[in-house]
Amino acid sequence: MIIELCLFARYREALGIERERIEVDVTSIADLRDALLGRGDNWAVLADPKLCCARNQTLCSLKSAIADGDEIAFFPQMTGG
Amino acid sequence: MATSITTDVIRPGHRLDAFEPSHSAGAVVSFTGLVRDASHGQAVSSLYLEHYPGMTERMLDELEISACAQWPLHAVDIVHRVGDLACGEVIVFVAVASAHRQAAFEAASYLMDQLKSQVPLWKRETQLDSAQRVWLIPT
User: Fold this and answer.
1) Per-residue pLDDT tens for A37-66?
2) What is the pLDDT of residues B87-129, one digit of tens each?
């Protein structure tokens, strides 16, 4: 399946990627993170235990399922206000 | 009722002047968040705020709906700055109106707590001495 990967804040800076369309063979967001960690190098930033994620711009858990065409975002804890 | 994300300077006085709750409102509580010139003992030269276009705006709308469901609010104004900010500039302005002060205080406090932890916004400080850029973590 093809998904749109979005990265924000220090993850975006560490990887130099804001948005990337990628082809993956996974069923959950946790699987997607594992696949990305497998790329090595700076992708280790996604091993952050406080990592947050969103599916189609809605906050979700790593256990959430993924479907073709989804927009999946990874970002650190939020610090607005 | 209004929420917004902006790259423009936020002027709390202007927003309070434009804030027009109904005559049945007996209390208006507002909060203004500013860029501090120091953080964790380090002098700060500027602040950058990043957001998730689309999701951030929608979550601000949902936050307003959530507050209105919990307190009898007559009016709500939430505006959050993004992009590059200088020390002393306004990061966020929140105002709520209600018949009585207790609800207004509680709702304003709730909105700020949620803004800090549940809305996709991220702060990065630039330190004055080293020019090092540091992403903040929740305290």
Assistant:
1) 999 999 999 999 999 999 999 999 999 999
2) 999 999 999 999 999 999 999 999 999 999 999 999 999 999 8
- Partner-chain residue, chosen from B50, B123, B138, that has the shortest CB–CB distance to A8: B50
* pLDDT > 80? residue B20: no
Q: Do A9 and B135 count as a contact with CB atoms less than 8 A apart? A: yes
Q: Is B88 left (phi over 0), alpha (psi -120 to 50) or beta?
A: left
Residues shown for chain B:
139
Distance from CA of A8 to the nearest CA of B (A): 8
Cα A76 to Cα B137: distance, rounded to the nearest angstrom: 8
Q: For chain B, give every domain's residue range.
A: 2-128
Read off the tokens for B81: 């700055």
Q: Find chain A residues with C-beta within 8 A of B33's C-beta.
A: 81
Task: Residues B2-128: name the CATH superfamily.
Answer: Molybdopterin biosynthesis MoaE subunit (3.90.1170.40)
Rounded CA separation B122/B109 (Å): 20
Q: Of the candidates A10, A73, A76, which has its C-beta nearest B52's C-beta?
A: A73
- Choose, out of B48, B49, B55, B114, the residue to mutate when testing the contact with A (most A CBs < 10 Å): B55
Chain B CA closest to residue A10: B135
Asked whether this complex has an ipTM greater than 0.85, the answer is: yes
